Input
Amino acid sequence: MADEAHAGSLAGQVAVVTGTAAGIGAGIARALGEEGALLATCDIQPKGADVATAISQDTGAEVTFVEADVRDADQVKAFVDGAAAHFGGIDIVVANAGIWRPTDPVGDDWETTVESFDLLVGTNLRGLYLTGRAAIPHLVSRGGGHIVNIATDHICPPPGWALGGGTRMDAYDASKFGVTGLTESWSKRLAGEGIRVNALCMDAVDSEMTRYATGKALTDEVIARWMTPADIAGLMLDLIHEGPDGRTGENIGIWLDHDIVLPPRREQLPSRHR
Output
C-alpha cells in the first residue's frame, strides 16, 4: 500500500477523476490531492462541489469541479478540455463514474429492459470511453501518463470463482466486460506513447452504490467486511507509482478476505492483431 515515502510525489501532476461526489471517486480524489496532484473532478451530482472544496481545504490541493453527465459527449469533452486548459495538461485519468441497478432478463418489461441498458452501458461503458478518448490527446501531448479504469471483480474474480455477477446483472456485467476491451485495446495502442492503461476490479467497497445493491441484507457485520474507498485509493497510488515502466493492460483483482496489494506483473503475450 502507499505510504509516507510517496507523500507529495505527484506534485505538479494533473489528475482528472470522474464520479467524485462520494465513495471510491471521492476517496481516489482525496488520495491524489494528498500527494500533491492538481485535481479536476466531475460528477452528475452537484454535491461533488462540496467534496471538491473539502478535499482542497484538507489537503491544500487545487481542486476544480464540474457538474457533468459522463453519458453526454459534449459535457465530457468540455470537462476534460477545460481541465487541460486550466492546469496546462493532463497526466492521470481515473474513469470512476459508474452506476448499478438490478436487471432481470425474465422479469423486466420491455421499457425497463431498454431503459436499464441505456443507463448502465451509457454510464459505465460509454462514459468511460468518452472520458478516455477525450483525455488521450492531452496525455499524448504530455509525453505519457496513466489511465486507470474502474471495473469490477465480476470480470476478474478470485481464484476458484466464475466470471460474472449474479443472475440479475446482465446489463451491468455487459458494461464492465466492455471496460476490459477498452483497457486492453488502449494499452496496446498507447504503449508507444508512454501511456499505461489498467483497470481496478474490486469486490465490495463501502459506497452508496454497494449499500443500495445490498438492500435488506445490509447489516453492521456485512459492512465491516467491506473494503473502504481509502483502500482502493491506496492501491491506485501504488499502481501509479510503478512509473513509466510499470504494468499496463492488466485487470487487477481486489477481493474481500485477500490482501489489498498489487499482484505480480503478468507476462505480456503477443497480439494476433495489429
Observations:
- The first strand starts at residue 14 and ends at 18.
